[in-house]
Amino acid sequence: MKSFFQILVFCFANAALAMSSGQLDEEPVIYIVSYGGLPWKFVVTNNVAEIRDASYDNRRVSLYNFELYTPAIPRSTPGKITTPAAFFDVDNVLRFRVVKIGDEAFRGCTNITSISISPGITEIGVRAFERCRSLKEILIPDGVQSIGSRSFWYCGALKEITIPDSVQTIGWGSFLKCTSLERVRWPDHIADIPKYAFEECKSLKTFTFPNSLRSIGKMAFSISGLTEISLPHTVTNIGEYAFSGCNSLREVNLPSELNSIGRAAFIGDDHLQEVKLPDNLERIQSETFKYCLRLRSVSFPKNLKSIEDAAFSGCHALEAVDFPNSLTNIGTYAFWRCSSLKEVTFPRNLKSLGASAFFHCSALKGVKFFGDAPRIQGELPFDTNVVVEVLEGTKGWDDGRWRKYKIVVGPSEASSSGITNHQK
Residue 46 has what DSSP assignment? Predict the structure, then answer.
């Protein structure tokens, strides 16, 4: 006795054969896989011309919603594709409305150059057009509500994308490595740019951030071609590595409401010259501006409490820093190899100074402290030729590690005259 599965395969094979006698090579069309009396999947082929009589004999089926689905679509798919909105048999008895382009539906179809998605489709599945390397243009109609993760990953020829306002969700990595992408229209109401969204979009020089934007995900614009960033006041969070490796980035305008910049968010942006950090920011996280080789000026937040490990490491052009009095911690390697840094004045509330925090700062000959000696975390914070100037009456300078430096004690009245507005 045949199993249910064997019967299903047998029925499907007969239905497929019944539908495939005609030939239509110009455009791919669709046949149906039946399961339990109801249409189950659509599969795109190049040789099906029609749905033949009796394919669904004695089955009452009408106006069901289906998914355009195939993990095994022929890679020789023609260059221009129009996804069907609906199809029906020769007697107009059955009609099926296509509402989804399924996961991996056109993945790896390297011949496709143009796609026009029909009205009525509401969802583009995960990896639906991944690695369509020749795809230059796509029309996404109003009515599409969801774009799946990695849906256009590695579409290296795609130059422009307009995302309609009907879209409510966009998955992560949707346009990763779209290296020719130049223009993007992002819906105003989508408040979060997902992680990896435009990573390695090297031709993307400008991007209009919507006024409702709240956050930018991990590596969202990493290694992109952005030359300027101007974020709206609604943004409160920038994810880690979000703008890392943006070698053309020259100007960054950050909103006052921003309270979190993730680790290494701007690492390696070697054309960035000036940064003004918003006062809401209390931590500069690890490697945030590491290897920003042309960074000359940083305006620190007045409420800053911590500069963490390697935050400005390798910023060779940085000449001066003006720390706020709120600062209590400077991490390991925080300003390592800042070779243009000539003098540093530390605020009275500094409690902790990381190992090698200012090591190999070749232009740095002396530093000033306005409070008690901070605790050294690990190895020495400066090269041993650096002169340390402290205020009379402050404590902790007889610690063994501080004795490795030449310490100059100055009267509090004289030293106080050099205190900046931040440090008072």
Answer: S
Separation between Cα atoms, residue 303 and residue 139, nearest integer Å: 47
Structure tokens at 114: 């143009």
Q: What percent of the chain has pLDDT over 70?
A: 74
The count of other CB atoms within 10 Å of the CB of residue 417 is 7
| Rounded Cα–Cα distance for residues 247 and 295 (Å) | 12
How far CA 234 is from CA of 84, 141, 186, in Å, comes to 40, 28, 16
Instruction: Please tell me the predicted confidence (pLDDT) of residue 100.
Output: 81
- Give the pLDDT confidence score for residue 117 in this predicted structure: 85
The answer to whether the CB of 142 falls within 8 A of the CB of 165 is yes
Tokens 């779209």 identify what position? Answer: 178
Amino acid occupying residue 99: V
Look at residue 16 and give its three-state secondary structure: helix
Which pair of structure tokens corresponds to residue 348?
A: 């009275």
Give the pLDDT of residue 315: 98
| Phi and psi at residue 179, to the nearest 5° | -70, -15
Mean pLDDT score of the chain:
81
Structure token pair of residue 7: 């019967």
CA gap 204, 180 in Å, rounded: 8
Q: What is the pLDDT of residues 356-401, one digit of tens each?
A: 999 999 999 999 999 999 999 999 999 999 999 999 999 999 988 8
Question: Would you state the pLDDT for residue 121?
Answer: 86
Contact 166, 145 (CB under 8 A): yes
For the chain, the distance separating the N- and C-terminal CA atoms, rounded to the nearest angstrom, is 91
Q: What are phi and psi of 275, to 5 degrees?
A: -140, 130
Task: Give mean pLDDT, residues 89-112.
Answer: 68
Residue 253 is inside which H or E element, if any?
A: strand 251-253
